[in-house]
From TrEMBL:
<comment type="similarity">
    <text>Belongs to the glycosyltransferase 20 family.</text>
</comment>
<dbReference type="InterPro" id="IPR001830">
    <property type="entry name" value="Glyco_trans_20"/>
</dbReference>
<protein>
    <recommendedName>
        <fullName>Peptidase C14 caspase domain-containing protein</fullName>
    </recommendedName>
</protein>
<feature type="domain" description="Peptidase C14 caspase">
    <location>
        <begin position="10"/>
        <end position="217"/>
    </location>
</feature>
<dbReference type="Pfam" id="PF00982">
    <property type="entry name" value="Glyco_transf_20"/>
</dbReference>
<dbReference type="Pfam" id="PF00656">
    <property type="entry name" value="Peptidase_C14"/>
</dbReference>
<dbReference type="InterPro" id="IPR029030">
    <property type="entry name" value="Caspase-like_dom_sf"/>
</dbReference>
<dbReference type="InterPro" id="IPR011600">
    <property type="entry name" value="Pept_C14_caspase"/>
</dbReference>
Amino acid sequence: MRLPDPAASRAVLIGTGQYEDSGLDDLPGVHANITDLELRLGDEHNGSFQQLQTVYNPDRSSAVGVLLDDEARVATDTFLVYYAGHGLVDRHGALHLGLSTTKPGHVNYTAMPFEFVRHAFLDSPATNRVLILDCCFSGRAIEAMSDPHSLVSGQVDIEGTYTLTSSAATQTSHAPNDARHTAFTGELLNLLGSGLPNDTAFITLDEIYTHLARRLTARGLPRPQRRGTGTAGQLALSRNQHRAVATHTRGLPRAGTDFVPFAAEFVVVTAQLPFDLDKPTDVPPQWIPRPSGLRTALRLQPPGSLRAEKHAWVGWPGLADERPEAFDDAGLTVVSVPLAKDEIRDSLAGFANAVVWPLYHDATQRPAEDRAGWEAYVVVNRRFAEATAEVTAENASVWVHDYQLQLVPAMLRRLRPDLRIGFFLDIPFPPLEPFMQLPSRTEIVRGLLGADAIGFHNARSATNFLSAATSLVGLRPEARALQVEDRQVTVGAFPGAVDAVGIEALARTPEAIQRARQIRADLGNPRTVLLSVQRLGHVDGMRDLDSTLGVNRQLQALYELLADGQVNAANLVAVSLVDFVAKDGAPTYLNLGGGIEDSIAQINSLFAPLGRPVAHYLQRSMSPEELTAIYLAADVLIATPTRDGMNSVAKEYIASRRDLDGAVVLSEFSGAAPELTSAFLANPYSIENVKTAILDAITVDPAEKRHRMRALRRQVLTHDSIQWADSFRAAITPEASPR
């Protein structure tokens, strides 16, 4: 956030509300727009612009053009232009702004060419350039502005200029009969006055846009548009909240009271939606759901669960430059946040995956200083915060997830201080020493502290975050809580969960049981099937993944067991599966690093019987049905990452084994290890330790195996995704009662 420099900033306010025998409708609200904006922006004690020019009902375009040029050239910090009135199009398709003498039949020489405004901005040396248009487009202008193929549609886009327009639709932003201002400017004035439920002295242009969009849409009016943001999105304007609001707009809702039609009482925000957008060429696009315990918890309605009357899920749809409409998923409103290709490259693949992910997983390399990636990360987080602010009801609860969105809580709190906000980190939070290497460490901690409750998979990560907050922000924890200004932020462990009931139900089906038998037959009906599954999300930008996943260590342990004769290749098959969503739906090969392919080839060349490999390595996206069948076919699941969050695969495997058969080899450093104590725990850094755990799981007494699996299932089925969501909801909103 930055403020205009009064000495180096200029503002020009232009309004045409009266038209002399032209056939154009007068706009009575425009005069109040100009006079009251002048009071707001030019207040010598509490305004943003000390040097401000106003022009009401101009009759000559040349005079306005000269004024714009003069002010633009002397503004080196901020140059702002506001226009309210009719927008028109001449017979050549060029956009004009109405003057008091404008005649629709002679637009090209009775109105002011929009090019006057464009050239003024392009010639200005100002760092921040801001254009605000409250135009009631009339007649042919409406059609031209709304036609994406017309010459007019892009005319309001000016390079390097932050532009807010009242609408790009065919409706107009006229003033209601009982209102003093036009609707768009009336809301703007309200935001610059005391129309927010807080006492902050400033409001950024991005925040203004978010509030305008939410409030105008709630009133059934056209949604405002934001174009060519330039560098001014974080420019802050003064709010005159302490002066008498004599010019307050009548009949307009105050912020925090009126929202979009599907204003949600509970909103989940994730980096990517739990759906894949399928776009075949011959049929309309379709949403394909992916397995998600949290989505299940939202769609089901058990007593006391987090389901409210209205709830929503906000996230990226998974494809670049896509802006699909919101849709309903069994009562859950799903809202997409569009991302451009460069934003995906720089923010998700760049900063989040190439810097944050390896650092949080205790990677040994020093994090790179990715400035472009960090800037994109900030932009993407702000877009998520704005999208969330628009769809959330007053005093509602928001639950933000994912390491890609660590700045959202603080950004959202600034936009909507009325909300209760929770954040859950889906990967480990690192110890203080490696975290201190991150150039943006303080910004991330402050971003997370915007939440009322911050959750991690285990107590170790929660302790690491408290240490970071103490060292970087100077906060002292008391009973796992931090005092942030007038708020108390709860920090705790909320071990993640899976849809255990749904997975168990799927495992009961005759189709899953038959498919599991077929899989074992296809593998040669060995005595023992070892299974390792790595589930990956958006992996672009990640390098040397296996240093964390530990697949090659598992293969090394298997190699030594075979070489030492402790297991027999004739009776054993190992399957390593990488389950991920292919980019753009196309077959993709992931190089996880670590020499996995060489290890697979070595094992098979040395130990496999003729015609039957000992080790299989698969990379593909698996349906829930197929993956459940694979779980049922496996005798031992091996999950030995050096560091992870929940390890949902281990819990899914356990949920599927209602037969009490099967065993789990689990890393001591897995986020699930403190819960799944009946698994065969192993130190993934010790090949010998992993070998022992695998051998113990293969040779365990059947009675002990059933006893261990029964204990594991009791934990997983009791602490399922619904219970997990309920417990976190109670932390976000203490008055909410878990079931």
